[in-house]
Amino acid sequence: AQKVTQAQTEISVVEKEDVTLDCVYETRDTTYYLFWYKQPPSGELVFLIRRNSFDEQNEISGRYSWNFQKSTSSFNFTITASQVVDSAVYFCALRQGGDDKIIFGKGTRLHILP
Amino acid sequence: DAGVIQSPRHEVTEMGQEVTLRCKPISGHNSLFWYRQTMMRGLELLIYFNNNVPIDDSGMPEDRFSAKMPNASFSTLKIQPSEPRDSAVYFCASRGGAGGTDTQYFGPGTRLTVL
Predict the structure, then answer these.
(1) Residues of chain B positioned with their CB less than 8 A from the CB of A41
(2) How far is B42 from chain A (nearest CA, A)?
(3) In the list A5, A17, A111, B38, which could disulfide-bond A13, CB 3.0-4.6 Å?
(4) Are strands B110-114 and B10-13 parallel, antiparallel or unpaired?
């Protein structure tokens, strides 16, 4: 069985603070892919990153960084120096290697307060 | 490059009416997915196609829902008759391309309101 858990339903931080969104996944496959998507208030789903199970290197893209740890089955997302425009719902997702479908977590709603 | 295109962006209809949602995937993508998003149930996969062929429609709620993909550049999701509980945002996503990338790219969604 595969599952994605985003335990944080809602987070509020003040602008310029760092914030980490947690994602824990379950899968029996050794080959799998992990994703993060952003859904801003305008409603579209924006792809942020994809990681495969064989690449545990952390990734940094501007103020965004991702920490993938197979030992704890986690793929956490950190925003450094948050900005109001980062306010959105963030979804973590999992695709098992032999499957077409993606399983989404329930999302974390992030509020960045000015 | 154009992303996934969905139309209409908003649809308001009355219970019992037929609703047709449209999707144009990214050119060259060979997989297409229809999702529904509600506050109560989150993101649900309704159906997906590979190379225009429906592969898994187990997420389609009931017979009132149907989906087609007559060619590689067009898909429809039809609800007939519509009911208030069908009110949701419907997303289309596509995936594929050279090398078979694994990322699904989403359209802007259609917000459906059934009165």
Answers:
(1) none
(2) 6
(3) A17
(4) parallel
